[in-house]
Predict the structure.
Amino acid sequence: MSGAFQPQFHPAGFDSALRVVLDDVRTGRWRSMKALLETCATWGLRTSRSQVLAAAAANGDAVEAWLQEDPHDNAVMMQARVLVERALNAHRVGQRDVGSLADRARRACWEAARSWPADPVPWVGLLALAQVDSPDVYQHRPEHRVDSWEYMLPYGPWGLLREVQERDPGNREAWHRLLQAMQAYGANTHDFVRWVSTWAPAGSPLVLLPLYLHAEHYGIQRANGQLTPLYWTRDPVSHYTLRALAWWFPQADARSWSPLDLNHLAQALHSGGFGEGAAVVFEAIGPFVTPVPWEYVADAPERWLEEFERARSATYAIRKPGRCTPADADERPPQHLQGPPTGGAVPCTPQCPAPFTVPSLPEVTALSSKQVAELIEPLNLSEAHMPDSLATSAAFRRGGERAAIPDGMPLIISPVGADSDLRDALEDLKLGRHSAARDLLSRTGSHWALRTSRSQLLAAGAGEAGVFKAWRDEEPDSPHACMMWARALTRAAVEAYRKGERHQVVGRAAALAQQEWQRLDYLWPECPVRWIGRLHLTQLPYSANYFDPYAQRRRAPWDQLDDPAMHYRGPWPLLHEVNRLHPGNREGHHRMREYFLYRGGGAAAAMQFSAWLVSGRLSNAELLMLPVYSLLDLYRERHGDGRGGALQFWQTAQVRHYACRAYDEWFAPLPATEYPWLSISDLSHLAHALVACGEDERAAWVFKAMGPYALPQPWKDVNASLGRSRDWTDAFLRIRASVLR
């Protein structure tokens, strides 16, 4: 770069035609403004230009003169724009007459909407006024308290946004105005921007919406001494930054770039350590620097320009890639993401649960072998129902139930799938022999994903748990024997609690399990299963930190995540330990989802966790299935008896989004040679979701991967809720045959 940098602060930015007109507007002349608005080729350009013109005209009478001399549609629109701007300015400085100003602006917007029904700008103005309402007024304005389009999002002016969407899908200002309204209402805006980021199409400025929220959040928290610059290097902020670099910057029309968007992206890239990407964006910015977001990261807000110049100079001085460049980001939008969903789902805004009380657990050192047997045997583990995503124990009996069907392909109800070695080990365990299981786990080695799934299925389908106790007694120093006995005790404790067993029975089983997991800490410190088992135990009615042997050493609060986008409390340190030993472990994250489902807020909280998880960068694409499971949990909770639009639930854009994303980004890239190792539970849930939202072509490939295997869920619960045949296999076979035909 040659020559001294000369920043420009002109609100027109790159729009040279708008720059000329603004000078006229400030001097009270309106004819060039009229001519400029008549040349706008897109609604987006009309929206952005009218916003900048209104900000300049709000301090003069150019628009009033235009409306008096030539009451054109554009003049009516600009009058509404100016009145909205004046109301917002009054609101920012706390004027007392802001209510009357907002009412006058609202009437002008309605008049402009009637004057030109196809124009989205008056509706954008109405959206902008939504933030002016106080909480009390908000309660009394019906257009500001409308159900959101998707589950998990709060009430708000969604009807006004829908009007804009119908006229100009993805209108940049409209979505920013909705974000501002939600901030004014005190809603959970992190959920909102995360949701937008899941469907925002490539090239859309909405991809940058999370960066605006995180920049403002950082500025507020840093002023209070609560955040450091490392905030920008962590997920989900770094994920949103790289997504914007790959999805928006190279794919958007450069003529539509907003200097404000470019400055937000450059700041996030520089602060996150992505030097090469930041350099490219700084070049695109040129001289058009904006105070925001630099004032959020500067040592003092008034020194924002120094911060911009420092960041720009440092980036140009390095001129080498940071942690990632656009070519490395490998972020491409899935094919099915064409724009925002517009379904009419009922929102839910769950509250964070109160901390648990801590019942005491019994000591286990005095328990004899006879007492252990009395504790475990009555639980009848071979028949116990396990309502989670990982196994259905009834399907283990007789090696899987088989039914003949007309097309010749059998139906085998078993979670084992094509893993013949696992099936043989299960048969051996049912006969009271553990040698095959021991050999199987030994051969599995340190393939933690396979070891986790196999050990979980062995524990669920073994029949009587005494076979693991006998193995443990026979080989007391075997980590495999210790792991499987701890698995059986953990499952026994959870099943006892769900069956309503006495507190003493649940407590003894939990204490025994905790003792075995602690023993495994010494026998096999590299094994992530010991932390997965502890996560499983958090479903019991005890304080979750009881199951963390290092709870006293960890920072407080123990159960709170350092991420403003996830406000729910939970056993995050246990999940951290799982990821430390095996990043992206499937069962570990499902156990965390189950914690929220059973102990941490219900199906809504589990859905929040799942959506939050998949909004970041995943080390295991299998985790994209978590929202599909959580959607079934929501369905059971809200439509389990067939009430309230049960069929429509599966046809919402939210279901389609998560199902298609799991297919496109997890299942579709897999080679067919890996199909036998996939979870039958995952495939069953994915096939059902794809069929339910009309994606039969995708579903056909999933059915082919399943082969003859299937599990009752989700087919059984959905079938029963709709009042159909009690035998879920009838519906499954009919659907499978139809899709594969």
Remarks:
- The chain has 36 helices and three strands.
